[in-house]
Each structure stands twice: as structure tokens, then as C-alpha cells.
Amino acid sequence: MAKETTKKTVQLVKASGRSLPISTKFALEVCGFIRYKNLQEAKRLLEGTVAIKIPIPFKKAVHDLGHKKGIGPGRFPRNAAREILVVLKSLEANAQNLGLDTSRLKITHAVASFASRPTHGGRHRGLFKRTHIFLEAEESAPKIKKEYKKKSPHKEQGKKKEKTEAK
Length: 167
What we know:
This protein is 35% helix and 24% strand.
């Protein structure tokens, strides 16, 4: 008899945003918040953040940060959420182009990193904020419900009787 082997094909889709005009600190917190979430759920959460309905819990930059109901220290980083939402929509379009099921996409990799910071001139010189965003999602397998055999109550009662007789 020959064994049948099934290869697990991993369906990955990627999207990136380069030199986005957002704070890297806020982008790190937002990326940490949406990581390992379903794509549709992540879009809903970010749209709620843009509408100032759903706060993002902050894990790293929490010094002198006010608490929000139910999550602890958090904020509404609207600009970062708006830009990352654009990259999420691009990720969804890339998945549709590859023929993946977008309802089963799970974000597996969400990273924000520093980009080059151009200067602006004038009397009060400074640097613009720039951030690179990289997102990667994987199509998860459909959930299959396992059926378990129910133990018959007669067998369990027989075991209890044996234990009491042994004493």
C-alpha cells in the first residue's frame, strides 16, 4: 500500500507602504494590534479607530498615557490607522488578484520601520516623519468540526462499581 501524502500549500500575499507620512511609534503600536487578526476584523478595527470609536492599546509608549475603558493605556492614532488601512486594502486586492479567499486571510506579519527623513527648510528647520509598513497575510484552512464518540453511561457505571467492590 502506498501512503498518500498531501502537501500543504501556503498561500501568502504581501503588501507594503513606503515612506508614509506617519509616526513610526504609532505605526508600531497599530501593527502590533492588527497582527494575527483576520483581515476583515483588522479593517473593521482600523475604520473604528479613524472614526474615534475603537482605541488602540499601547504596549511600549505608555509613559504619561491616559487609560481607555477596557484596554488600559491607549490612543486613537488616526493618521497611522488611515495609512495602514490603505495598505490593508492593497493587501486584499493583491489576494483577490491571486485568487485567494479574502474572508479566510489572516495577517501573519505586520512591521513598521523607520524610513529616510527629509528635512524641511525655513526659519524652524526640522525633519518630516516617514515610516515603511510591510504586511503579509496567509490564507487559513477552513475549520473542520471534529465529531467525538460519546461514551456510553453503562461502561462508566461498570467501572465505578468495580472500584467500589475492590475496596
